[in-house]
Amino acid sequence: MSGxxxxxxxxxxxxxxxxxxxxxIVEVAGALFAERGLDVxxxxxxxxxxxxxxxxxxxFPTKESLVAEVFADQFAACVSVVDEALADPxxxxxxxxxxxxxxxxxxxxxxxxxAVVASLPHAIDLDRERERGLxxxxxxxxxxxxxxxxxxxFSEDDLVLLLMxxxxxxxHSADAALAASRRLVAYLLTSFAGDGPLPPPVALSLRDxxxxxxxxx
Amino acid sequence: MSGxxxxxxxxxxxxxxxxxxxxxIVEVAGALFAERGLDVxxxxxxxxxxxxxxxxxxxFPTKESLVAEVFADQFAACVSVVDEALADPxxxxxxxxxxxxxxxxxxxxxxxxxAVVASLPHAIDLDRERERGLxxxxxxxxxxxxxxxxxxxFSEDDLVLLLMxxxxxxxHSADAALAASRRLVAYLLTSFAGDGPLPPPVALSLRDxxxxxxxxx
DNA sequence: GGTTAAGCGGAGAGCACCATCCGCTTACGC
DNA sequence: GCGTAAGCGGATGGTGCTCTCCGCTTAACC
Lengths: 217, 217
Known about the structure:
- The structure is a homodimer.
- Chain A is about 65% helix and about 0% strand.
- By secondary structure, chain A is mainly alpha-helical.
- In chain A, helix 5 packs antiparallel against helix 7, helix 5 runs antiparallel to helix 9 and helix 6 runs antiparallel to helix 8.
- The longest helix of chain A is centred in the middle third of the chain and has 25 residues.
């Protein structure tokens, strides 16, 4: 464990203190984003992490890159929820828990909610993960329809619809977000199962989004 | 028609040109808010109205007051939609058209959507109107439930839930907003009619909102 | 037509934010 | 211990916003 790394100070090329700072930055940023949404100032993050802004910007050249890093894990978790759902022998139950879990994640973390909807145009790894998640979701939809539990005119695009709607809930309600989100989801799941007239589905491109800022304290 | 008004230049105390400018400001602001959301800069409004910013601020001391003025009409229209709905002999049909119309208003006008959700804490006339609208809505809900068409566990607070969800749709989709909103509404109306397990209702205080800015181009 | 208050517009104060620059500090490897 | 590259933080640009100040213009009334 001490041979080859003679020039490289640490496994990832970062000095020990720098590494620590970096980790702390990500941690603090995550907490602040969750609590106050994506538009907390970089200075606030730096201050709370106990570093200068310069340090922050040295690790993450732009705010967007920081956001991407912070939510990469949660994004991945999100996708793995799809895998879990696919593993469920009952596709409809899988579908429901999937929707419930993802929306709960959104509700609990304001930043994540905004990040999902904004979906960070330039973060390629996230994009690829999302692609994978969507494919899994499509499969789940197919199965749930085949099982006769999901209405046939449900569109995959309705997931985006749901996410945006849920985002609207989260954006404007501080503490009641989770409870409100749950109720919305319950309503919609009921509707996804049942039937009734429905206007045609709408493809909402998740990515035509503004800058970054969406919500606020 | 020429007796008493010797000192007063116009009925509302505004000089003719000033009056014209004021009207034009409101008109232009309405258009811009609708198109780009509430956070279009005051300077942009002034420019497009062909006046200086000072003129704008002389008529409307704060941006919020301008927003309030612009949406007062639409707010009233919104409330009158409630009256129409109450006039419908079929309370469920009234309920549905009410929801559809209000959500369509939200979808067509980004600014209105934001304004409804933000609901301008300090605009008292709007508040009173809203109060009246909500009372009417409550009555409509009562009737629709009595008719057995609206599920008994529907809560009045679910209207706010719906508005916020719809706001989420509108905020993040430029042109497809109306179509998407319609689909969401259709889903939810289906669910409002049917039944199924539902978590308890949540009172979302429409007014705990940030500053003003919510959406963006 | 002349007087005058009301109205006007642009420049800029004040603020918040993202991002950068530069001189000092410190962990690391010998 | 010591040299050095890597790391650090505060001051500083630069931008975009809301709202204010002040000297000029013009509509309204005689």
